[in-house]
Amino acid sequence: MSTPINAALVAEHNAKAQANLEADYAALGGMLSRRGIDIEKMTALAQTFAVALPSWGVGTGGTRFARFPGKGEPRNVFEKLDDCGVIHQLTKATPNVSLHFPWDKPTDARELRDYAANLGLGFDSVNSNTFQDQAGQAHTYKYGSLTAQSAQARAQAVAHNIECIEIGKTLGSKGLTVWVGDGSNFPGQANLRAQLERYLDSMRGIYAALPEDWLMYIEHKLFEPAFYATTIADWGTSFACAQELGAKAKCLVDLGHHAPNTNIEMIVARLAQFGKLGGFHFNDSKYGDDDLDSGSINPFQLFLIFNELADAAQRDGGAFKPSYMLDQSHNVTDPIESLMSSAVEVQRAFIQASLVDRAALAHHQEANDVLQAAQTLKHAFRTDVSPILAMARLRSGAAADPVACYRASGYREQAGAQRPPKAGASGSGIV
Ligand code: PSV
Ligand code: MN
Fold first, then answer.
1. How many angstroms is it from 254 CA to the middle of ligand 2?
2. Residue ranges with strand state E in 143-257
3. 349 CA to centre of ligand 1 in angstroms
């Protein structure tokens, strides 16, 4: 197995961090033990945590208006995997990558699988793309893909999804995520009911091609690019479609795909209750975006989501296994640093939620002691679990401080020298 960052450099970085970390860890361990929590159990739990990386997240994203390419951006799927390898090496929290086709379409899927394995990476669910026309495609998606009026455009979109499944099988993926931007921009442009009927009809064709041990994740999004009505705009529509399609169809919650102030943790609780919570695309947002780093705007919301996940795991046991993935891409930071930070923030919320005293919470709820119930959650949320996360990384062979270690490695500068930008790469962006 190859490590993109020199292993000796990581070891040296960790050796320097060790004494301070051990002191912080001992102090936190003492504090948690007074609350009846064994820090060692929490560290072991943190070591099991995994969130998948979006292949498109290692590029510099853009907005509808422009994109500002970063130094040493990956120019192909192999370079994207190299960057994902760095993130996993330094965090040991991101063992899988989610590919997006045709952006990442391999000429030889076996070669790609082996290349990833050599970096210690596997593959999460694959993503189809029928939200933009691809070079040489016969039928346009300008007026929709899985929901298009044109039967040929719909058939083409179904065939593309089935091709994604085929590539994913060779890669070792176990799921297909379907997000379509289909909808309408004007009242009257589309018959709202007929559009959803066409969607379901197309999705049945894709569902029929799913292997037995695969899941299909239906990702909803409130708006954009459709600005009047999006076909799969909310979790209710997503849930209804997942019910219609069958047991292998589940709902995927992208945190940025809701109206501002939506109670996302309640959506999580509802979907979990009815066995349809498939997974997440983690990111953060302030207004109508879906691309900011996880936990950068509203870490309490992330905690509350994990609180629901911890509750569901306790109720449903091992059967409850939603998939976790990051989905972010923006302009102003080094994407490797942002993805490492996001992975750590999601892991942080997972551990903070594991600190919640569930028996006490249930007791306060039964007694209608509202203040104490709220304080029980806040107590866990306010606990700085950084030493647990750093110790988990140290024990897993990752970096005590991933961003500091990455900066010291000079990886970005080397990538800048080895990957001269593609001509025309500063054009209009995708998000
Ligand atoms: C759409 O905004 C989305 O969240 C979907 O997951 C896409 O596959 C991804 O972003 C990349 O455009
Ligand atoms: Mn998404």
1. 5
2. 175-178, 183-184, 215-219, 229-230, 249-254
3. 23
Beta-carbon neighbour count of residue 118 at 10 Å?
Answer: 12
Q: How far apart are CA 283 and CA 214, in angstroms?
A: 25
Assigned token pair, 372: 């104490």
Q: How many residues does the structure list for the chain?
A: 431
Mutate to test the pocket of ligand 1, among 97, 126, 160, 179 (most ligand atoms within 8 A of CB): 179
Ligand 1 close to Cβ of residue 254 (< 6 A): yes
Q: Is 219 in the pocket of ligand 1 (CB under 6 A)?
A: yes
- Tens of pLDDT, residues 378-428: 999 999 999 999 999 999 999 999 999 999 999 999 999 999 877 655 444
- Is the pLDDT at 183 greater than 60, yes or no? yes
Round to whole Å and give the CA distance between 140 and 154: 10
pLDDT at 425: 54
> Could you please report the per-residue DSSP string of 97-147?
EE-BTTTT--S-HHHHHHHHHHTT-EE--EE---SS--TT-SS--TT-STT
Element spanning 365, H or E: helix 358-366
Verify whether ligand 1 is closer than 6 Å to residue 13 (CB atom): no
β-sheet bridge partners, residue 333: none
Q: Give SS3 for 175.
A: strand
CA 43, 1, 87, 161 dihedral sign is negative
> Smallest Cα–Cα separation from 291: which of 320, 332, 322, 252?
332
Please indicate whether residue 401, judged by its CB atom, sits closer than 6 Å to ligand 1.
no
221: Cβ below 6 Å to ligand 1?
A: yes
Does residue 179 have its Cβ closer than 6 Å to ligand 1?
yes
What does the pLDDT look like over 96-123, one tens digit per residue? Answer: 999 999 999 999 999 999 999 999 999 9
pTM above 0.90, yes or no: yes
- Cα dihedral sign, 91-97-100-101: positive
- How far is Cα 430 from Cα 73, in angstroms, rounded to an integer? 15
Joined tokens for residue 156: 């083409």
**Residue 14: what pLDDT?**
98
pLDDT value of residue 430: 44
8 Å CB contact between 13 and 400 = yes
206-239 pLDDT, tens digit each: 999 999 999 999 999 999 999 999 999 999 999 9
Is the CB of 88 inside a 6 Å radius of any atom of ligand 1?
no
Tell which one of 132, 218, 254, 325 to mutate to probe ligand 1, the residue whose CB is within 8 A of the most ligand atoms. 254
